[in-house]
Each structure stands twice: as structure tokens, then as C-alpha cells.
Design a protein that fits this description.
With 87 residues, this protein is mostly helical. Helices cover 79% and strands 0% of the residues. It is elongated, with a radius of gyration of 18 Å.
């Protein structure tokens, strides 16, 4: 998505950790993967916006958006299949 130097990786990890600790303290469920990916995009964009491969970032966001309904559909199908065999 972007090239990170060690200091950029440190900043991304620190920002991700602060975000996760804050969300946990407030009782907000968040994804660690989403958090660190957002932090990496943030660090990459501080150099210049063209340093981030926005096409890759966009595909990641679409994968996140599609994952929730896909997981819901699989869960519903599994539940229905299980209900057929439950006493």
C-alpha cells in the first residue's frame, strides 16, 4: 500500500495501539486490522498523497464492506442447515 521506513512503522503501530486502547476503554468494538491499515495509510499520506497506492487501499475497503454481509449470509445458511438436524 505504501513504503514505510522504521520510524513510519513505529508511528503507525503507536497510533494503532492508542486507537485500540481508546476504543477498548470506551467499550467500542473495533477491528485491529482496520485500525493498523488506516494508520499505515495515514503515515504514508503524510509524505505525499501519491505515496499511497489508493487502488490497493480501495480494494481493501471494498473487501471490508463486502465481508460483513457475506459473513451474515454464511451464518444464516449454517444456522438453517443446523436447524434441519437439531432435535
Amino acid at each position: 500500500m505504501t513504503t514505510l521506513r522504521p520510524v513510519g512503522g513505529f508511528c503507525a503501530e503507536t497510533a494503532g495501539a492508542i486507537s485500540l486502547f481508546t476504543a477498548t476503554h470506551l467499550g467500542i468494538p473495533v477491528s485491529t486490522t482496520h485500525t493498523i491499515t488506516g494508520a499505515i495509510v495515514g503515515v504514508g499520506s503524510t509524505r505525499r498523497l501519491s505515496a499511497v497506492r489508493w487502488g490497493v487501499a480501495g480494494r481493501i475497503v471494498w473487501a471490508w464492506v463486502l465481508t460483513i454481509p457475506a459473513a451474515a449470509a454464511v451464518a444464516a445458511a449454517t444456522f438453517q442447515l443446523t436447524a434441519l438436524f437439531a432435535p
